[in-house]
Design brief:
385 residues, mainly beta, Porin, 2 domains, eight-stranded antiparallel barrel, 51% strand, flat
């Protein structure tokens, strides 16, 4: 099960209010020569413990005694003055990669590991002498699950694949011990899902409490001084994208090709947000087969679905942004997994050229994943009047 609403709610709460960040209290904000990359490295070792969010009654009954332990090793690079102006707008965050390992003490689930990228963003930096606060967003790939198998592993009713998407959202408070060390504690949300590429896909959702030790080997603070930021000249954009993926309807059954064509118009609201409207047209190859579509197979109305949608971007850098949609079907089919009149999307996109972008997202129906979308798109920009 895809807890898309929970992920979206958590994300917007922390965005409006983590991961490691360097202390800022009393930092020298005088502009100076940038630090070499090797002195902007930040290391963090983090342990976490907690329980699982039970998706339904069957999961609660079969796996109620699960207690989870995990560990993260992260290496990040502290941004400073002189790079992307979005670094300044987000109080100079840390970007990095992390390795995750965990155990559920259940051999039928496995001992998953993950490799991921993350951004750790300070919250109101420099207000306290020894305390600093931040939130983080992480995305990567997990593996080493023991998937469902009717004969060999029938008790894993959560996941049908060895590998899944790994999504992590967290908030953290850090206490400075000295110039190079910090102790931290926080709360996180983890989600594992394969996007219905292979069933079952009830997914795994965790809320662990975290404890961390952070080490910064730098000889001095990075340059956290800020340039005057010009007011944003708002613009109008039109976005055209094509996405594709695959979906399985029954465990061990055939996998079907799915695709999306979307067109949206949006307006910038400051540097960090874009809002707009548009719509998506979805194609599902399952509509060609009588075993799925019945007597309606092959008809245009069976192969295609879609409807209008609300559009939102949260811009992190000049090239990287988070994208979301909330849409309403005008035409949908329950046999195709479109079990709700509302469809959702959450994902990440990256500008590969000035006008073109690529990305990955999960389309879902409330708490249930539809499929993973691999996306290519183009944007047309003009100034707002």
């Amino acid at each position: 099960m895809k807890k898309t609403l929970l992920i979206s709610l958590f994300f917007f709460v922390v965005s409006w209010c983590g991961a490691q960040v360097l202390p800022r209290y009393g930092a020298d904000t005088t502009a100076r020569e940038p630090l070499p990359a090797k002195w902007r490295v930040v290391w963090q070792l983090e342990t976490e413990n907690g329980g699982m969010i039970h998706n339904n009654k069957q999961v609660r009954e079969d796996l109620n005694d699960i207690y989870y332990n995990g560990i993260n090793l992260k290496v990040g690079w502290q941004t400073e003055r002189g790079g992307d102006l979005y670094h300044q707008r987000y109080h100079y965050p840390i970007y990095g990669i992390g390795f995750y390992a965990s155990t559920f003490r259940k051999k039928e689930i496995g001992t998953p590991t993950a490799l991921y990228g993350f951004v750790a963003i300070p919250i109101a930096p420099g207000r306290f002498r020894r305390w600093d606060f931040n939130y983080r967003i992480s995305l990567g790939m997990a593996s080493n699950f023991v998937p469902f198998d009717e004969v060999n592993n029938p008790n894993n009713i959560l996941l049908g694949s060895h590998r899944t998407v790994f999504i992590d959202l967290g908030a953290q408070a850090n206490y400075r011990l000295g110039k190079r060390f910090q102790l931290g504690t926080g709360l996180a949300f983890h989600h594992f899902s394969n996007g219905s590429i292979k069933l079952p896909n009830k997914g795994i959702n965790l809320i662990p409490l975290t404890f961390a030790l952070t080490y910064h080997p730098g000889r001095r603070q990075p340059d956290f001084s800020k340039n005057a930021d010009a007011p944003k000249e708002n613009d109008i954009a039109h976005h055209l994208h094509y996405s594709f993926g695959i979906k399985q309807f029954t465990p061990g059954g055939r996998r079907y090709f799915k695709s999306t064509v979307g067109f949206y118009g949006s307006r910038s609201f400051g540097y960090k947000w874009r809002l707009g409207l548009g719509g998506d047209l979805f194609y599902s190859d399952s509509g060609r087969y009588p075993a799925v579509a019945g007597d309606s197979k092959g008809k245009f109305n069976t192969l295609f679905s879609g409807g209008p949608a609300f559009y939102i971007d949260h811009v992190l850098t000049k090239q990287l942004y988070l994208n979301g949609n909330v849409g309403l079907y005008l035409n949908r089919h329950a046999f195709n997994g479109e079990v709700s009149p509302v469809f959702l999307r959450i994902g990440v996109r990256y500008k590969i050229f000035r006008k073109y972008y690529t990305g990955v997202s999960i389309k879902a129906h409330m708490g249930k994943a539809d499929f993973v979308e691999w996306t290519l798109g183009r944007t047309w920009l003009r100034k707002a009047k």
